[in-house]
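S1.2 Input.
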Amino acid sequence: MKVSRRTAPRACVLGATALALAAGSGRAEPVRVWAANPHYFARDGKPLVLVTSDHHYGAVIDADFDFPAFLESLSGAGLNLTRIYPGGMFEVPDKYVAGNPLGPRPGRQILPWARSGVAGAHATLAEAGEPSWKLDLDRWNPDYFARLRAFVELAGRKGIVVEVALFNGMYADSWPVMAFYHGNNVQGVGRYEAEECGLFTTRNARNEDVVRYQRAYVAKIAAELDPYDNVIYDLCDEPLLQGRPDGSVVFLPEAEVVPWLHAMRDAFLEAEAPLPKKHVLGQTVQSLSPDLSGEAWCDWLPTEYVRAARAALEKDYGARKPLVNVESDYFGHGLVKPYTVEDVRVEGWWFLVGGGAGVINLNGELHRGQEKGGADTRERIMPQRKALKDFVEGFDLAGMARFEKLTGIPAGAVASALAEPGRQYAVYLFHGRDDGQWGAHFVATPGTWRDTFTVEAVPSGRYRQEWVDPASGRVEGTEAVEWKGGDLTVTTPSYSIDVAWRMVAAGP
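S1.3 Output.
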């Protein structure tokens, strides 16, 4: 059944209805798309610019992850976003980096489903010396939902928005430890093996028994979190992905994945229909996902990595929905090449000043046992993210839009811009390139640079221009501009990697 926000079918919300009537964060309504400018979110009638440096999504499912310390580190740094995977997909222990919270230690996964009294699940689901109990997909785990609610509630008190990514495309090493794998649940659903793990995000007949429980999980999460205003939802990251046992990746046909996405969408919307609050729901664009940006239910558009994010800005900005770069390369690990503090900075500035509504830096320094990050995170990355947030929030965003009438960018440089012509302009310029492999991140190019660029068709008027150092947020120079109208050529001061320029109308 196709469901829209305007219909209210009978929903199976699987309990927790009473929770939806309880007081959540105390605000009038959840995060929503901003009516004044749908390229941004809003809360309490004010625009939200979502910026963070984030852990690897397992703050709730890793029983050993000290999430109060983690949330305090974000809040203390002035950041306002985090992302979680709430149990529909997770990873094997310590994948990528030691302490990866999306790969809890054996038996330390805390999942939405109750343990049964039947042994025989994968050994990774058992603590040392303990039986590996299968999960009962028909019974919920109250300890998990208490932890989930505590996480979201604490984040809300600290001004942090929680992006809930309900699923991810499946990897062969993850599938044998999933709750939906036939060896790990007493229902025996999910009767396919690692080499066919991509079935997980399809309506293939062999996955239909799993789909029933996937829908129930989506509905339960929606019901439990309905009281909270600081939640936004993402259906599935990379649903076209199937990770093979040899480590390679193949892409599933869109025709097999779209019906599954629609089934998960319907489960979410049906669950929320009778509940007091309605939350925004999005689906990834340009990165291993069908592009559903034109569908009315899809309120916002997650994207990830530099090449996919560039494609999203170019192809999906016209959908007039918030675009968020929800995943970068993995700082401290580097999936393709070393990923430096400077690379983190330029990627975030480029995307937000290019029209994005938010950015996440996936950060391997934020892990189990080091929930406040390492020195680079505390002393450089987080302050630089805050400088970016402050810069963008310094504009009247109601009138700002992606600006493409920027010419004369020098060779070896990359630029992005926002503008409300005649009133306010923002330009970000850096020297660098993408990593040259699969576009996971930018590689910044240090040097001594002084460049010119042209802002086309600037109306006549009095303006004030400022140069901002992106690494510190400091204003490095200010100048009054009397302009007669036409193309404005701007010369930067000397800089080493990147520079930001803003110009605002100074009045009559």
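S1.4 Remarks. DSSP finds eight helices and 24 strands in the chain.
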